[in-house]
């Protein structure tokens, strides 16, 4: 896995001033354990938070920093923290780290957990102090076996050093932390499905309200944050709001840095910590090195399989939520995928929709029935057996499964790439429609018939 810096690859060294997430990484890719982490100023932010800051001041600092969730939704972290109850009589609260990283084409949290496990623990420790939570769980994707091994070792190191457990740093504050490996369901990335799974229930999303801040794990107030989100907290506490905001490029409404990447047939696929506001072109050309010889960029996704496709001319968009929204899709996880000119878009979408269909929890009808329907139609078109009206039916499903039409955000994310692919590459879909036979009585299904 590649990690480079703000300029063209390897020309500028990572530093604490510019790369708060990655400056401690080892060049050999090995994990940074407790002694080395502390030698690199690790847990200094936690000591500051415990000795010099009131709990509410920590929350306010994170709110003022503009930190937003890094799992894809982008909700302001400080605002989310502020939803936790202020009632001091509620002495059982939970902090959950969402490490169920199953978005196709996304591996940023894995790098942090495998190589900098103490950064996540420190972020959770400070967050627990701010939120008055006495117990935390890292809900980890079951396939991340190396991450689980490294996190469990780091937890034991922190316990032995008095950084977890009872009376942390002599403050009287107790915090226990556990690593919980999931069973491998994409839907567990939705925070209430994650909570159900942690409780031993089926991983279905819950109805909201009530929100987890009021009724979460085992009915108690709960805050759920993504791995990368929590890893930003120590630097914000250590170096302050103004510094953190200064990291982003002019024009960006999102603050700080972001782990971004590019995969596909690019010359230098990898992962980099970059300031919000860099352009997609910088990410694609300066870091990923452009397409490999013999390939041409056909389109790209800016942030995982659940984001819409963009064309090469959209590469000049700035990489932050509002910048990507201007060209018609979402920032998502910030890990982009290049699609080369040898790829048939119908086959690519059929593969994607098979994944999303399989990973549906099956709770609501539009998702449970609509996604398999899209797979059936795409498979027919891929095989040259599509019928007149199939493309219109697919577009109808895009509308029927869009935002606000289903119980959670799984289906809207699943159909966003489908809608964009038809928008930009409709001739490839039309090529799979079989010639109409004389006397063919098959009904043409229109978008209005599926609720669009």
UniProtKB/TrEMBL annotation:
This enzyme's EC code(s): 7.1.1.-
Matching InterPro entries: NADH-UbQ_OxRdtase_51kDa_CS, NADH-UbQ_OxRdtase_suF, Nuo51_FMN-bd, Nuo51_FMN-bd_sf, Nuop51_4Fe4S-bd, Nuop51_4Fe4S-bd_sf
PROSITE patterns referenced in this protein's UniProt entry, alphabetically: COMPLEX1_51K_1, COMPLEX1_51K_2
GO molecular function terms noted in the UniProt entry: NADH dehydrogenase (quinone) (non-electrogenic) activity
Cofactor field: [4Fe-4S] cluster; FMN
Domain NADH-ubiquinone oxidoreductase 51kDa subunit iron-sulphur binding, first and last residues per copy: 346-391
Name of protein: NADH-quinone oxidoreductase subunit F
Organism name: Pseudomonas hefeiensis
């Amino acid at each position: 896995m590649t990690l480079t810096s703000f300029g063209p690859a390897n020309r500028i060294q990572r530093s604490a001033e510019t790369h708060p997430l990655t400056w401690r990484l080892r060049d050999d890719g090995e994990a940074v354990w407790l002694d080395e982490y502390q030698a690199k100023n690790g847990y200094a932010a936690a000591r500051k938070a415990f000795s010099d800051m009131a709990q509410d001041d920590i929350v306010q600092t994170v709110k003022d920093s503009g930190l937003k969730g890094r799992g894809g939704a982008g909700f302001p972290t400080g605002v989310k923290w502020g939803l936790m109850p202020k009632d001091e009589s509620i002495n059982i609260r939970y902090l959950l780290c969402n490490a169920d990283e199953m978005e196709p084409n996304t591996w940023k949290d894995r790098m942090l957990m495998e190589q900098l496990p103490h950064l996540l623990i420190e972020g959770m420790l400070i967050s627990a102090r701010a939120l008055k939570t006495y117990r935390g769980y890292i809900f980890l994707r079951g396939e991340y076996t190396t991450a689980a091994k490294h996190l469990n070792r780091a937890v034991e190191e922190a316990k032995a050093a008095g950084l977890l457990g009872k009376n942390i740093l002599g403050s009287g504050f107790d915090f226990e932390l556990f690593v919980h490996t999931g069973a491998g369901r994409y839907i567990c990335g939705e925070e209430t499905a994650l909570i159900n799974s942690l409780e031993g229930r089926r991983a279905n999303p819950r109805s909201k309200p009530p929100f987890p801040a009021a009724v979460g794990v085992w009915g108690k107030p709960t805050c759920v944050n993504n791995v990368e989100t929590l890893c930003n907290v120590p630097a914000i506490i250590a170096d302050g709001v103004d510094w953190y905001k200064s990291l982003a490029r002019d024009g960006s409404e999102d603050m700080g840095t972001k782990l971004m990447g590019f995969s596909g047939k690019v010359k230098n696929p990898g992962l980099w910590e970059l300031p919000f506001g860099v352009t997609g072109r910088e990410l694609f050309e300066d870091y990923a090195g452009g397409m490999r010889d013999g390939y041409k960029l056909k389109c790209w996704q800016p942030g995982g399989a659940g984001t819409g496709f963009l064309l090469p001319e959209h590469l000049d968009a700035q990489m932050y939520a509002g910048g990507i929204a201007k060209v018609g899709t979402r920032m998502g996880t910030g890990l982009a995928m290049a699609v080369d000119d040898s790829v048939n878009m119908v086959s690519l979408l059929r593969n994607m929709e098979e994944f999303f269909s399989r990973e549906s929890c099956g709770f609501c009808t539009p998702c449970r029935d609509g996604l398999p329907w899209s797979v059936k139609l795409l498979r027919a078109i891929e095989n040259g057996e599509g019928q007149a009206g199939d493309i219109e039916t697919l577009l109808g499903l895009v509308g029927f499964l869009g935002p606000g039409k289903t119980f959670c955000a799984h289906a809207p994310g699943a159909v966003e790439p489908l809608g964009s692919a038809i928008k930009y590459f409709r001739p490839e879909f039309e090529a799979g429609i079989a010639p109409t036979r004389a006397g063919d009585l098959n009904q043409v299904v229109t978008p209005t018939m599926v609720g669009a």
